[in-house]
Each structure stands twice: as C-alpha cells, then as structure tokens.
Design a protein that fits this description.
By secondary structure, the chain is α/β, with parallel strands linked by helices. The protein has helices at residues 23-36, 46-54, 68-90, 106-126, 147-156, 169-186, 218-228, 246-250, 261-277, 290-297, 322-328, 330-338, 351-367, 377-388, 392-395, 443-446, 448-453; strands at 10-16, 41-45, 96-100, 135-143, 199-204, 209-213, 236-241, 283-287, 303-306, 370-375, 404-410, 415-421. Strand 8 (283-287), helix 10 and strand 9 form a beta-alpha-beta unit. Helix 9 (261-277) packs across helix 10 (290-297) and helix 13 (351-367) packs across helix 14. The two termini are 31 Å apart.
C-alpha cells in the first residue's frame, strides 16, 4: 500500500499582492494540488474573517492606510486568522497552511514571520517532542498590470463575492476601484535586496515573468514548478471516457480491447458534439490504448497520445472479470475493497500510484486553455478529484459513466461542472463498495454489488 506524504517541517504559504490579482485563485489551486498529492493543506482567507467579524460590506475608506480604526480592525482579523493557521500547523497535525490576504506591507510580512517563529518556541514548551522542529514561511506575490485582466477579475470575483451583495454593479465597481487605490498607496512589493533572506516567488503578468528567491526544499521547488504552469485566463476542459469497449461488455478490467459497436457509435456522436461546440484551438489528448485512440479517430483532428493517461495497471488481474478475480485472488480482492485508494494490484498499480503518474498531465493541463481528454475510468476519477477537490476516500468511487462528457470550468473559488450525456446506451461499469470487506467473506458477499446491478 501507498503511504501519505510526511513533511519534515511545516509550511505557511503567505500570499502577497493587491486585490483582484488572482491571489485567492492561486491559494485555492495550491491547496487542491497539495491535498491531491497527499499533503494535508488548508486555506485561511482573511477576507472571510473580516466578513464574519465586522460584516460583509465595508466602504472603500475602511481600507485607507490612514484610517486607524479600519487598520486596527483589519489587523485584528489578520491576527485571528494567523492564530488559526498556527494552531492548525502546530496542534491539529496540518502540514501546509495558506494565509490568503493582501499582506502588502513589510511590517505585516515581518509580523507574520515573527508570529510563526514564536509559536514554535511556545508549543515546544507545551508539547515537547510532538511538534515539527521548524516552520517555514513562503511568500507568493501576484503582480498584474494588465488593466483588462484586472477589470475582468473584478467583475468575475468581486461582484459575486459577499462584499457587494445587493449593491448595484456600477456602484460596486466604483467602490472597489477606490479600494484598490487605497491599497496601492501603502503597497510595498517583495524586494530582491530587502527580502533577500526570505523564501519567496514573484509571479508577474499571468506568469510571463517569474522570480524565485531562497527555495529551501523539495516541496517549495515543486510549488514553484506548479505555479509556473498556472494562468488565470478563462478556459474549458472537456473530459470523457473512451467509447464502450469489448472488454466493458464482457465485464473485464483493463486490457487493450477494441471499441464495441455502441462504442463506435458514441465516437461518431462525440465528434459531432465537439464540432458543434466550435471550440477554438482545441487540443485532443488520448491514452495509448486502442479504445481511447479509436474514440478520438472520428474527430478527424490531430491528437496527442499520452502513456500517462493509460488505465490503472491491474497487474496480475488485468483482463479478468471481478468474478475471476474473486475466484483466483479472494484475499487481494478483499484488501482492495478495504482501502481502494491505497491498494496496489499484484505487479500493478494503486490509485495513489496513478495520481503520481498523472502529475505531469495536471501540470500540462494547467498550462492549456481548451482541451478534450479521452481517457479511462480510473484516470478520469483522478483528474476530477483534482479539479473538484475530492478526498482520497471519495476519489476511487467517483461515478464516471461511459458515453458522458464533463465540461470543467475552473474559477476562483470552485470548479464548475457541466454534464452532457451522449445518447448511446452502454454498460454500467461502476462497482460500489460492498458492505462486507473481510477476507473471510463469501463469494456472494464479495460480488453483491455486481449481482444487484444485473
């Protein structure tokens, strides 16, 4: 079985930058990515604390640096959030926390670093030997001077946020524009000289320019690489499984069979569906298995076949039915039902292995704008878990029916999902978790969910 990732030191990620620069989008993306690869991560958005403590709407002068009452209240919110960050990392076994706020002044950033350092001294005295030996602070600054993109972010995020609920759009835009000017007057960007001893990465103009300083370990380097692949432009990702295969009809796992007649019919209708959408600059990705490439062939478009997108390797159980697996490997079958995400087939893979294999695919997906991915059930589950932030316990049971296309629309706080069912019948390959998972179970108990479907 696979093991969760253990970090030798805790990490506090601190966002830096003016409003409407994509900080929360980046914070949420980072958290989803880290959780997806098995690192316990939580986002602490200071704006949410402010709304809870002092109400959603605050006029623009609340954010002026000369407004002492506003400064005091905003500092109170930030310190409350930072206290929760520290508790999460030191006392709740969290591994990475994202402190999501503007943090635009040197004094605020100094205070964050000092509080994190002081917390380790305090906690060591209370719970000696039970906390991390260090806590690193890693700053991520978002810079954007593209006025059109800023305006688009304002409309897409701020006008749908609780801050301006019930307020006229024009009035909200005018107020928020003034809020931006108030922040600009006090903004002190990260500086190569002044901040040379801190760990940070600076992203400018939608990642056209990236600067990194004092990258201390493997995790920070992975985060920098992940950030290099992100952008905040609008995009759509279409994901579906291949058309129904001959092995699907026979109830066999894995293999490299051809499409069934209904699978070919789906491929034809999928091509019409995609062409009717008229998606500019659409890229098509498949696995290197026949059923995936055969589905894409009807599109009459150039496609790229990824080995990484191939179905989970069932090893010794490849091309067997579930009944045959139960007959030949009853204990293995039971162990898989006990922990489907971490279970590894003999000479094969686990879902945890598959997530690791798909990491380069995720990196490349984040770089793209419009992509159609024609893949397999386990692969689709892993990709959906990343974009929709599913727990590992949920991942391996996400329902991904044949002949259904999902359209994913990544946004700041959520990933919206649209589902299109193509009108071609197909077998149901979903196997729910049985009630009985003990190795001593009967054949009927092991296969109960399949018997219920038939």
């Amino acid at each position: 079985p696979s093991c969760p990732q253990i970090l030798q030191s805790k990490l506090c990620i601190v966002t830096v930058g003016l409003p409407a620069r994509g900080k929360t989008y980046i914070a949420m993306k980072l958290a989803r990515y880290l959780r997806w690869i098995g690192i316990d991560t939580k986002v602490f958005n200071v704006g949410n604390y402010r709304r809870k403590m002092f109400g959603a709407y605050q006029p623009h002068n609340f954010y002026h640096p000369d407004n002492k009452e506003g400064v005091d209240k905003r500092t109170e919110c930030a310190m409350k959030a930072l206290g929760d960050v520290i508790n999460y990392l030191n006392l709740e076994n969290g591994q990475v926390a994202v402190f999501d706020a503007t943090n635009t002044t040197r004094e605020r950033r100094r205070l964050i670093a000092q509080k994190c350092q002081d917390s380790l001294v305090e906690v060591r005295g209370i719970r000696a030997g039970m906390v991390s030996t260090s806590m690193q602070v890693f700053y991520i600054e978002m810079i954007c001077d593209d006025k059109e993109l800023i305006a688009e972010n304002v409309k897409a995020v701020k006008l749908t946020s609780p801050d301006y609920e019930g307020i006229d759009d024009d009035e909200a835009i005018a107020d928020f524009s003034q809020r931006l000017k108030n922040y600009e007057t006090a903004y002190e960007p990260l500086d190569e000289g002044y901040d040379r001893d801190r760990s940070w990465v600076k992203l400018a103009d939608v990642n056209q320019t990236i600067m990194a300083n004092q990258i201390l370990n493997h995790l920070q380097s992975r985060l920098v690489y992940f950030l290099m692949n992100l952008h905040i432009k609008k995009r759509n990702i279409y994901i579906c499984r291949h058309g129904e295969s001959e092995f699907n009809v026979q109830g066999r796992v894995g293999g490299d069979s051809d499409l069934s007649e209904r699978g070919k019919e789906f491929a034809i209708k999928l091509a019409k569906f995609i062409h009717d959408k008229n998606i500019p600059d659409l890229k098509v990705w498949t696995s290197q298995l026949k059923r995936s490439m055969q589905t894409a062939a009807y599109l009459n478009m150039e496609s790229e076949a990824w080995k990484s997108l191939c179905e989970l390797d069932a090893g010794a159980c490849d091309a067997l039915t579930y009944g045959e697996i139960q007959e030949k490997f009853p204990e293995e079958f039971a162990h898989r039902d006990q922990d489907k995400y971490n279970y590894r087939y003999p000479r094969g893979e686990s879902y945890a292995d598959l997530v690791h294999r798909l990491e380069p695919v995720i990196m490349e997906l984040e770089r793209q704008e419009s992509v159609l991915v024609i893949c397999h059930q386990s692969v689709m589950r892993c990709l959906l878990a990343y974009f929709t932030d599913k727990e590992h316990t949920e991942l391996s049971y996400i329902q991904c029916p044949l002949h259904t296309v999902l359209k994913l629309i990544p946004k700041a706080y959520v990933c919206e999902e649209e589902r299109y069912e193509i009108d071609v019948q197909a077998v149901d390959t979903y196997r729910p978790k049985p009630k009985v998972t003990d190795v001593s179970r009967t054949n009927e108990e092991a296969l109960e969910t399949l018997l219920q479907q038939s």
